[in-house]
Amino acid sequence: MLAERFLPDDAATAALGAELAAELAPGDLLLLQGDLGAGKTALARAIIRQLAGDPTLDVPSPTFALVQPYDTARGAVLHADLYRLGDPREVDELGLLDNPDAIVLVEWAERSPEISAAASWVVQLVIPPGGEGRRATLTRARR
């Protein structure tokens, strides 16, 4: 898998999501980083749909729910958005680290040092100058 890639469109983002889904293992925590509109939720949606084996699965942004759980063929998946987290200590109430076999995808993890420290993968998404597409950088944090 490439560590850095230019994603010109939604199809390229979905393809990267499928590749990431194939790499994720139970217990992995993937951080999705980037500014508003960088494509964090689009990439998470592609990963979750691939893990579920359902390309039409409704995968809403967890901005207001904070955590959206999914039961997939690969096991439990949690998709979290910490943007509205008021205090880093509130993350404990979300249960993101409670199931050691869950695959956890987290947007805005920088709002919780505890979650950031537990990451096994980090994807940084950046909209390049001119606003066309996005650049994705993948880092393996731990295994």
| Helix residue percentage | 10-25%
Q: Outline, from the CA principal axes?
A: globular
**Percent in strands:** 25-35%
Low-confidence stretches: none
Structural class label: alpha/beta
Q: Topology as H/E string?
A: EHEHEEEHEE
N-C termini distance? 16 Å
What is the helix tally? 3
Please give the number of β-strands: 7
Query: How does the major sheet shape up?
Result: 7 strands, mixed
Radius of gyration: 14 Å
Keywords:
7-stranded mixed beta sheet, alpha/beta, globular, 143 residues, 28% strand
Description:
The chain has 143 residues and is α/β, with parallel strands linked by helices. The chain is built from three helices and seven strands. The chain has helices spanning 10-23, 40-52, 113-117, and strands at residues 4-7, 29-33, 67-72, 75-81, 103-107, 121-126, 134-140. Strand 6 and strand 7 (134-140) form a beta hairpin. Helix 1 crosses helix 2. The longest helix has 14 residues, at 10-23.
